[in-house]
Amino acid sequence: MSHAQSRPRRWCAPLLLAAVAGLIVSTPLAGAGEPAKPAEEKPDFPPFEKVTQGYKQMPAPGGAFWTLYYNKKTDGLLAVIPKQMLDKNFLLATSIAGGPRLTGFMWGDRVVRWQEMNKKLVLVEPDLRYKPGEKTEIGEVIRRTYTETIVLATPIVSKRNGDPVIDLDKMTKADYAGIGRLFGGSVDASLSRYAKRKVFPANLELAVDLAVMRRGSEGTRARIHYSISKLPKNGYQPREADDRVGYFLTAVKDWTRPHTDRTIFRRYIHRWWLPKEDPQAAVSDVNPDQQIVFYIEKTVPKQYRRFVRQGILEWNKAFEAAGLRNAVQVRQQTDKTFNDLDPEDVRYNFFRWIVSGRSFAMGPSRTNPLTGQILDADIIFDDSMVRVWEARYAQMTARGPASEYDPQLWAFLERHPEWGFTSLAEELLPDDHSVSGVDLGLDHELLDELGLHEAGLCTYAHGMAHEMAFGHAVLAASGVLAGNEEFIGQCIKETVTHEVGHTLGLRHNFKASAWKSVDEIMKTRDKSVPVSASVMDYNPQMFALDPDKQPVYLTNTLGPYDYWAIEYGYRTTDEEYKTEAELLKAITSRCTEPGLAFATDEDTSFFAPDPLVNRFDNGDDPVDFARQRTALARKLLKDVEEWAVKDGESYNRLRRSVDMLLYEMGRSTRFAARNIGGQYVSRNHKGDPGAREPFVIVPAARQREALEFLIENVFSDAAFDLDPQLLNRLAPGRWRHWDSDAYDSMQEYPVHDRIAAVQSWALFQVMNPATIGRLYDAQLKIPDEQEAFTVPELMSTLTRAIWSEIGAPPDGTFTERKPYISSVRRNLQRRHLEILVQMVLSPPGRTLPADAQALARITLEELSGAIAGVLNQEQASGLDAFSRAHLHDVRLRIEKALNAEFTL
Length: 904
What we know:
This protein is an alpha+beta fold. The chain has 29 helices and 23 strands. Helix 9 runs parallel beside helix 21, helix 14 crosses helix 21 and helix 26 (791-802) packs parallel to helix 28.
């Protein structure tokens, strides 16, 4: 606006009078001597009675959190939101109650509140990651910086005594929760319908069958359960987290903390509120109103219910040791008892049996993000876990460690696919299996969205399915009934106990299985004696070569870490420790005691340094466990035809069993390989009694022992001495139909592919950039007087072992049937050559230390010279065609790699 435009207008008196006079003259008279009637004020909203025509108020015994009105004809739902609830936090939780993916899964929860604005109710989510900082100097800055998220806005359709009325369909039949993406389509509200509508004084429970349309008029229904409830107000006090004890946590950034503090975060563990009935007693019953009660859903098969009950109640041992008696209770739902309870209702905790077709169990919980208090927990357990699981071992063997849940490894292989392994069969006949190998039907982005990458996705049941298949093989081979109740019961109980541990707030502890030696574990017969320090590890089943010496199948009771962790999370102050700070300090000071070491999901990546932190390993020496497990697999492989397939059955069962045993051999040897370049990691704090160093390099002798184990059990011909008659009986699965568990696109058995996969991933384990980098750094971390295992020693030992045929002149005459270098060894040598070439051609100092690249270059040069010596000898004329062609090809590839150009 110009200066002239902004100047105020000036009215002269005559003009102003004329304007007023004109206005009066032009205004019609209301009537002789009658004053004009004021215009009728238009109401802001239609009358409540008119809006609710056709709707019926839903019954709410005891009162209603929100009053609901339902129209049966239109399947419409109106909600009256009490005005005193505006700008007040409440919990909005969603669960997947039905549909082809993740039925029973807690989908999400958020703390939200309604705000009235411009004739709308706006649902907003405050950013609770930041402490508001009220009554502080920077409180206003904090609130201005970390603003609310608008979840949705819906028109106010009417008001009842000042309370806003909204069309609840706009929220519950919309797709604000991202369900469409999960089911691969978009939600059509007009085709969606309510399945359940329940009103209670402190919560609403609504289930909606959403129509998820994929293309055109085709789609599917997914039942989504909405639980809308008040946040509790009780005597709960948050408890600070400690990195020596594994709890899920709520992290809040607090800008009001003094600048001298070491962190601006406040980290609270997730736990239940379990007040004592007698606060003065050292050991007291938990107040009955606050006990953790699990309902076993009536869908759980009757023959397994007792194992489920035992697994849940097992935790009472740890709670009582922490001063809380009868903390956990179990009730059985039947058609007559507790039948009206909804598993998705936030007031109830359920153990649920699902049939997704995937080996899956999970124990998620919902918490108050302001405090970390656990409000609700449901465990889902898939029926497939207790069925013999032999499918997809071909893919799992080919993908090696990438077939397991490992976001770091997935990211590495996505960026550097040349380090991975792709079988010839997959190249010829690609399938549609995800590289992730986590058979949940979830992509990586979705895992991130669920927050599972951050918290650690529990794939225990997925791995336990393999353990059960392997156990089935052992029991079948030893003549013991494969489906015996004791075996299955121990597996179910331990898995249930593990998942209940998650619902109590506990994270995985993957170092717990290193508590005892393999020898000690194999001598344990008493089920009441733990063989692992924690049920929160992924504990494998243990089997003896001699059935008469069979130990307990797996740990079946809580270990010392479980008692200690529960004590940290739930013990209250008493006469001995009058303040919480004193109490927690006393508990954590014991962290160096045997069995209390802790390491969790982020510590067990393929690239993580500690060889004692693995999923499904056992014992304090990975080589001992690998030796025991590999020997058992070889014994089973030797007489596999006798136990794997019965008269009248398809030979495809034989193929599945061989694949399973090869996978087990490959996985076990990778545990041993982790000693190479390994470092034992400790979470001890400075000043802890008997504290260990944060890092201790694995002794050189142990690293050499691991390498010799690999050379003998993976890289030698003898490691894969398979009977030709057996190989000709590995028939393909012929059932080609949807989701088939017995179909092989490649009919012939690609034996070289299977062996190459096991060997390739073992090589990757010891020659990947992370292992080489740690070995390289270790030379500066080991005192001069201490022996070290070095990168040159690793590379020279591997090269001598893998290329041993060229270490001496060939003696004799060889044929294609009896070659100088076997086909298995030729494939191994090519893979070793590929890795050396990758090391040489990588940009110096980027992926690998430059010194390691220089070593790889000189290794190739020496290898080329040695091969030239073999080919130039008189005896070389006796070489078979395969071996001669192989060595010529290797020399040519080395020459090209060494002469390749690269940017300086």
